[in-house]
Amino acid sequence: MNDIKIDFRILEKFVIDILCSAGIDRKEAQIIAKVMVWTEMIGRSGHGLKRLSIFIKRFKRGLINSPSSAEFKNKSDAVYLLEGNDGPGQVLGHLAMSKAIEIADKVGVGLVGVQNSNHFGANSYYNQLAAEANKISIVTTNSFPIVAPHGGMSPVFGTNPFAFGAPVRNGQSILVDFSTSGISGAMIRKAIADKRTIPIGVALDENGNDTVDPERASKGSILPMAGAKGYCLGLMVEILSGVITGSAISNEIGSVWKNFNKSNRVGHFFLAIDIPSIMPLEMYYDRIEDLITYIKEAKKREGVDEILLPGETRWHNYQQSIENGVRMSKNTKDELQSLGEEYKIKIPWKNKKS
To answer: Of 137, 145, 206, 339, most Cβ neighbours within 10 A?
Structure first.
């Protein structure tokens, strides 16, 4: 059996059952499962269910707290800080964006920084929460250092993803979500697992030389995307997510995969902008649709069938997951099956054809 497809509701329930059996608070397990499965549905598996085993391992080691004891601190009418107290990143992210939306409804703009958190999945999940509430949003997070600064060779930054969301009338919002590094850590881990090379020019070995060997890259560093431009974006994310939230920064953050002697203490940044506070919502939708038309009707280069919007491929994957089931790789399926067997939970795909 290779890849399998499974109904997202069945998969979500299975993940909730695993989390609860491992000791996670049920309400928090529901949020964590929803974020992880949504991430699988849009095709970002590197930040989805592949993280479940390591999440549980870190929880069992006391590095993630559930139920969390997160606490909001009011800094101004438009600004809040969420003390995460090592809670699940998905839960803290959900709380933070929900608060940013609430603030934006009142004063037009809501800004929430999160300190002392954990990996929270794909940034764009939270952008979509904001889009559903008629908000434009920006979401950033820092992470353990594997990216060298422009001109350097030792890791200083995480892959430090940046995400932007803008609602569209049909519900398939524009979702810009990318790491500020030349390649993600998840892609390097996948290349190691698949025994294949990585592109030239995205990573260095431990001696500072270009490498296409993912094993060597994992001992060296990743380069910023687009040279100095990616370096500047990564620095911006580190300042927004780590410096001004009071969270850990750079080498203060341990690897989620390797460091089990301390909490991650990563930081997140959430900004929600209420569109009706700026212009009537219908006017906004008309204008954004005009812009989309200009983009779609641009003259195409040879060999290009369609100009896609940011997030359009994710929405295609999402719709396919709704209609045909969530596609899971054999490795992810095997990891979930092992967890199900460990916690004596019925495996929903056993004795079914792929």
So the answer is: 137
